[in-house]
Amino acid sequence: MKQLHRRTYKIYKTIGMAVLTGVLMMGGLSGTGLVRAEALDRPSVTTISPVLTDFVTYEEITREETYLNIHMKVPVLKGLIDTKYQAELNDNIKRHAEKDIASFEAEAKKDANEAKKQNVEWRPYELSMDYELKADGTGNPNDIVSLEVVTSKSRGNNPEERKDFYNIRNVKEASRVTLKELFGPSYKPFIDQMIQNTMDRNPENYFPEEFQGISAEQGFYVQDNKAVIVFGKYEIAPGSMGSPEFEFPLSMLQDVDRDQVTLDQALTYRTKNGNLMIPLRIVTERLGYELTWVKDTKSAELKKQAQWASVTNGENAYFINKMAPQSLVEAPVIKNNKMYVPYAFVSEILGATLNLK
């Protein structure tokens, strides 16, 4: 079953990449996309109307034609302090929508005419757009506006979906917000490892082997003091998972650049399950923690300023401060008089970065 999902994933990944680069693929005239051929002769109807909300309006484009139905809500930001930046951004979003309309319209018209020539029943293609304002700059953080725009194209079967994200620093001279700006230059290996750990713990929900790390232009939005990394449908998971999202509290990554350590891979080993184990004392002391061994409970307690953590031999329950214990891929183990913990302990429990050489 997983092999079937992976094959399906590769097909849709190809389609998704074409959409993301602006190359619209020709749709087949399958039976699921068909109705009466005489419907090709009905007239088209187009309406455009602006709709107001507190921070954003949208221009509604509705068009019903013989070959294409359009139902689009094209967002128009109106609450940015930098009005020049706002006008340029709104123009960019509108042009992007117009490009989608023109390209898909040409494709739909060609396919509809071909269906008519062959006397094949036809159902108009569907193009839609909607959006969600994830943050309006009044939450936490209080100067970031985050907008998600979803464009969907359907040829009578499963629609192709593209998500575009606009993250803006809402100040006098507005600018685009990036993951590098939020978390510093060392954010990528930290985020990559945490996403990989989540996938490894739930392999039935993902394609762990397909994940090659986040890209330089990775889609994300900011909401409730979190950065949410978003992947496309079929990109790293079966279609049943929709568009996978991974949340990262901003506070978790603020010290990524300061809290990192390099370890010789020769000091590690892998379990029979293939999980990488690292020496607890060496790593944590290099990160500035004071380690205390509690002989009676075979536990190690870690302290660094106000931060406190605890691990116990054989117990897959990792404590950090006063939070509920977390489980990882393996329990701590004592080997050659040293305690080892999973590689993920550093990133997921201590919130630091471990680099292997």
Question: What's this, in brief?
Answer:
The protein has 357 residues and is of the alpha+beta class. It has helices at 2-20, 83-117, 179-183, 187-201, 250-253, 280-286, 344-349; strands at residues 45-51, 56-64, 68-77, 125-136, 144-154, 160-169, 175-176, 220-223, 226-230, 245-249, 260-263, 269-270, 276-279, 290-294, 299-304, 307-312, 319-320, 333-335, 338-342, 353-356.
Q: Could you explain the architecture of this structure?
A:
The chain has 357 residues and is an alpha+beta fold. It is 25% helix and 32% strand. It contains seven helices and 20 strands. Strands 1-2-3-4-5-6-7 form a seven-stranded mixed beta sheet. The chain is elongated.
The overall pLDDT average reads 81
The counted number of beta strands is 20
Which strand order spans the largest sheet, edge to edge or round the barrel?
A: 1-2-3-4-5-6-7
Question: If you compute it from the alpha carbons, what radius of gyration comes out, rounded to the nearest whole angstrom?
Answer: 25 Å
Structural class: alpha+beta
- Sheet with the most strands? 7 strands, mixed
Helix content estimate: 25-40%
Please trace the helix and strand order, writing H or E for each element: HEEEHEEEEHHEEEHEEEHEEEEEEHE
User: Can you count the helices?
Assistant: 7
Shape: elongated
Low-pLDDT runs: 1-46
End-to-end separation in angstroms reads 37 Å
- Percentage of residues in strands: 25-35%
